[in-house]
Amino acid sequence: MTTPVSRPRLRLAAAFTATLLLMTSCWGAEPGTPASSSAPSGSAPSATGVAAAGELSVAWEVERSGVQAQVGVAEGLVLLPDLAAGNTKLAMLSWEDGRELWSVDIAKDLGGADLLESGPRMPAGQVAFWAHAPEVSPSLLVYDTAAGSLLARVEGREGNYLSVAESGAVYEMIHSPEGSGTVSISRAASATDFAAKQWTIQEDEEATKWFWVREHDGVVDFCVDGQAGPLYHYACYASLHIADATPVAGDGQLYRSTWVGDTLVGLEQGGPLQAFDASGRELWRVDVPAGYPLGWGEHLLFFPDDGPPAVIALDPGTGRELWTSDREDGWMEPLIDRTPSPEDGPLVMVQAYPSVRTGVLDPATGDITLVDHGLTDFREAFPTVDGAVLIASGGPDSLTWTAVKPGQPGTLWTNVLSEYDAFRMFDRHLVAVRGDRIALLH
């Protein structure tokens, strides 16, 4: 399956930072090369010294060898065993102090798998990961987080892809025989009921760009990461009614779309911006430049791909332009995750050149004050704990990570991750690793 070509602005070193950020996909990937063998072991968690005011500190740190990857869930940090190292024990650590809550041997569940990879986010009480076996598609293993018991195994099939909604519903996409030009998409209520499909529909091959799903208000959006647009790029292409898979708008496929309350706003390729109510009735359409819409609470914002204005605000009920932000000092983009919402906090904006500046946009007025943090050679940025933004700058041989408070002068933490090789955010938990060391930072 191919990902649509992206033209990112703020992720200039994706190939480099991917190794640093432990990024994994919601979809099965081809098996990787097993690591060299080592015996699994563990150690009791240890606390470090208290950091200076405003500095990032280590809540706890443990040494665990034989770990392939980590998966964060509400109940704790799940450690996936490194099968190549001879470890087959799945374990979970407490977010509070790093102690082991449980450990189970899953050798009987692996079915010939020789590599494990973190899987899609699951509903409360469940954790899932991909089990890769040679020359077959990866299978999805689902465990409970109370004691590590296997709940479901969804066997991989050639040409199929799986995505799990926060409700636990599993969406499967299967490529039809070559030359048919179609794919089938089905929904099961859960991984445990995967065989009992609620519905199956046929779509053209354009649907192969649908990588992940989100459900809300009786609707499922099919979305993909990697498109030109906001940092932590996301774009949604189709919205279907969960009950019967009927499209909300038109033929169900848009170029980029977003929801503003009960209004679906989207673009067709090269076409106008259109708005629909939940029944599919068109409310309005306006001509806009190439770009992408963003719903932020009751506000509809549009970000052109090239050149000023940096932001256009539209009335979601009529499409009438409310205000524009025409910045002479260059473009800026929102720092959001792939399910943007005002509940996530303020709308943080980032401007990377000629130096990194951040600010908080008022979506009602367009007011923003960008603050220069004196950082150049921008590489990457993403939101982290307590509303801070973590920024990577410098070259491959001199990369530093600095945390700032958006719109506030100065820095919070400088080169905070110099003691670690990789890190990842699990909701509000920042986990860093180096070798066998695993730490929770706060």
Automatic annotation (TrEMBL):
Protein name: Pyrrolo-quinoline quinone repeat domain-containing protein
Signal peptide: 1-29
A Pfam entry, by short name: PQQ_2
Gene3D superfamilies, sorted: YVTN repeat-like/Quinoprotein amine dehydrogenase
Segments forming domain Pyrrolo-quinoline quinone repeat: 260-433
InterPro entries linked: PQQ_rpt_dom, Quinoprotein_ADH-like_sf, WD40/YVTN_repeat-like_dom_sf
Keyword set, alphabetical order: Signal
